[in-house]
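User: Continuing from earlier, I have the next pair ready.

Assistant: Great, send them over.

User: Here they are, in order.

Assistant: Folding the first of the pair now:
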Amino acid sequence: MDNKEENSNNLGFAFGRMNYVLMATGLIVLALGYILLSGGGSDDPNTFNPAMFDTRRLVVAPILIVAGFVVEILAIMLKGKK
């Protein structure tokens, strides 16, 4: 009987509230990083657009993308309270 009651208590969600909040935060950071990474091209292939190599695309966006993946990993690995 005790084992059956114990198993019925464990049938909830796999993650706790904090895990889901961290996952949502990580997804937002990832989306922001990819948005900042986009653009910078030119419609005319014969002209060079130096905006493709600005600090936003070379530094800020990759840092945000890596930070987003780190937050996602932490959200999955974090053990919630029972």
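And the other member of the pair:
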Amino acid sequence: MSLSITGKTAIVTGAANGVGLAIARHFADKGAKVMFADMDDERLAKEVGEQDEESNIRFFSGDLREKLTIANLLSATIDAFDQVDILVNASRQVLRSDPLNPDDDAVEMALQQNLMTSLRLSQVVATRMVKQAQDSESAGSGGSVGSIINLSSILATRAHPELMALSISNAALEQMTRSLAVALAGKHIRVNAVAMGSVMSASLQEKLKENPDFRDVIEKGTPLGRIASPTELAETVQFLASDGSGFMTGQVLTVDGGRTLLDPVSAPAH
């Protein structure tokens, strides 16, 4: 089973910090050509550094909720690397929501950021993948010509009132994963997702700064007794991006240390 992604080109969104940054760095370290994409241009420039034409990394800053920005991201990737083989939709927004307040727009905002941005970018990138594969041997042999990976949360199947927006948007994202997997299977493009438990993301880091005791709550609610590192998640994403998962599509892999086996509602995932 080959887990190699050497020589492949990947777009990773949410790549300025946390999990997205860890995935983008991991892919680059494993020999992939990587476009780091995020809204935070200052943080991107700091993390990526000087953009050397001979380097296997570039960065793109912009608001991917805008359709034109999505088109510009793809164009920048093609200009830099000539193709795109992997898309990792790692950008996500964690919003607190009030389920009884009709003026609370957290659900709408979460759907826009966590679902629609990923859907539109997936559609644009998949179209490019199809174009690239039209005359290739892999398109004729049934081999995979592209892989799209969405980052979800175990909250997609859990309910926590204050995180209703995240739950709804991730449940929709997982159904989008299955729907796109069927729609794109005939084009030899695979679409899968990873449902995260407690990973040391940027949002969780902030939560633990506010409430250090929350770490104990998480660890006691996780059978493996710890919080995952972003690198551990990146390795799972690499598997889904590689030929090692070549016969997998429409799947949601749960990476939660056993959390969903006994997850109490009082200890939400982040």
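Worth noting for the second one:
The longest helix spans residues 106-133. The radius of gyration is 18 Å.
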